[in-house]
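Dataset card, provenance and construction

Sequences and ligand SMILES were collected as paired inputs. For each pair, a complete structure of the chain with the small molecule in place was predicted and serialized as structure tokens. The example below shows a pair involving glutathione. Curators did not alter the output after generation; any descriptive sentences attached to a record were derived from the structure itself.
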Amino acid sequence: MKLLLKGFRNGLGAIIAFISWLIPVSKVKRSAEQQQKVDEQTIHIELYQFFGCPFCIKTRRTIRRLNLNIITRDAQNRQGVFRAELLKETGKVQVPCLKITSDEKVEWMLETADIIAYLEKRFS
Ligand SMILES: N[C@@H](CCC(=O)N[C@@H](CS)C(=O)NCC(=O)O)C(=O)O
């Protein structure tokens, strides 16, 4: 029963992800120089996520709209290193989670609303 529910949830998530991918987003436009500056910043940002999670899909849409090259990390794979890292650093497996690395520190940001607000404030 648990497996069946999990399969249903994953299937539904994949369908939502596919529909979201089909719906176009109006991307922020930047000059090549501006985009390069943004890319230099986003190289230090990673999104820990599940492919079919609705909160992650919403976050990925914002990333697409803001035209950001942010790498995604699969935290769904139970044997995966990224899930283990997320659990170790935040104390739980909750996605989406943004890992923001700067010279002095690494920040782990949970909550879709906070992540979207952060990205919009910094990059729009
Ligand atoms: N309040 C959180 C909710 C996020 C959430 O519920 N994420 C689910 C995936 S859709 C999760 O991390 N579940 C943990 C698990 O399935 O192990 C947000 O808005 O980001």
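Derived descriptions for this record:
The chain has a mean pLDDT of 96.
Helices lie at 2-22, 32-42, 54-65, 81-90, 112-123.
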